[in-house]
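re: that complex we talked abt at group meeting.

here r the seqs, copy pasted straight from the sheet so there may be weird spacing, ignore it
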Amino acid sequence: MFSQENNEKLTRVGPGTPMGNVFRRFWMPFLMPEEVAERDGPPVAVRLLGEDLVAFRDSEGKLGLLDRYCPHRRVDLLLGRNEQCGLRCVYHGWKFDTRGNVVDMPAEPADTPLKDETRIQSYPIVEWGGLVWAYMGEPEHMPTVPPEIEWGLVPPAHRYISKRLQETNYAQGVEGGIDSSHVGILHSLLDEDTSIPFRQRQISPNSRIPYLASDTAPRFFVRHTDYGMAIGARRNAAEDDYYWRVTQFLAPFYTMIAPNQQGGPIMGHAWVPIDDHNCWLFTMTWNAARPLEAHELDHGGVHTRVMDDGSYRPLVNRHNDYKRDRTEQRLRSSTGIEGIGMQDTAVQESMGPIVDRSRETLGSGDAAIVGFRKWLLRSADDLEQGKAPAVAAHPEWYRVRSAAIILGKGTDFQVGAGAALRVD
Ligand code: FES
Ligand SMILES: [Fe+2]
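got the structure back, here u go
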């Protein structure tokens, strides 16, 4: 049984927590580039790992991420003025550069030592791979570059990234992302004539993914790797063959789901902790071999439409019952909720912001979830003993992808799909 103590350890991400300390060893994506595109543009409110911060782009194009509150008398710097290479607090005019230095104190004597003595908390921030990333750990442990995940390496036309708010702890999201056994059930459509779930029929001619509906109880094989886990879901295909869907978990919160067809676009996610109860969900679609086509950027599928007020809250959300349609649910789909992405979010949010894992009943299909929890808890324990997660210092270990492949019975999936899983 998963203890409540471990549940706390897994889900608490604020300053000084064991898991928060693990995340502070990694670069983390948190903004879309368009949120801070403008030089001297309005500062942007940021909450990350339970800390309130403010991001801005200065007159020279440099990005800054500072404590949200002025070190003088704690005024909110979101009120601040972004001007001439610094963010100025509007109360007494203290001005900060992107590195956290105080560059002006107009209400103090010109020779005040306070100006050199005072700093505001600032974190390094870079733009890479179509996202803006922050590093919130100790400077001496900062990895040279963000993790070299394939979506960040391909040309911009080969990838599409969307962002949305999910009102759960990050771990609940990751667990949904590596949970292959729900795919043929939660996301199934019903037979148009009979309203019987496809999974109850012999072979589903309408399933978008082969063998998924005809074998809804795949066997799972979890392999621990230097970057996280490779999770093989094995389904029956033909007498001598298995159909393998290989999902990746990349530490500490990235996943990649198998493509519908080998060579087709791959999709991945990042669940970035805002605080214990919320996360940013970034969804990526990419194809290393070619630019994406318009229909591959579908917002009714895994990507989701969001409000245009900067909140990134999905239009369909928990506050409007995910616009669930009971007639649709009776006649055509498992959930009556439109879009795979929001079907996932609905079930994950329905557990509450932090699910009580001590009350679960896990089955054989949950092996990857058990592996994920072990990985993170072990990393937290190791770090408390002074041993940092090795992958944090090896961005190149992230050069892997997911795959969907038919292999002969008796072939190990990591061997048989070896070339398909590697990014060279
Ligand atoms: S509170 Fe910010 S300058 Fe005084
Ligand atoms: Fe799903």
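couple things i noticed - The radius of gyration is 23 Å. The pocket of fe (ii) ion (ligand 2) is lined by residues 182-183, 186-187, 340, 344 (CB under 6 Å).
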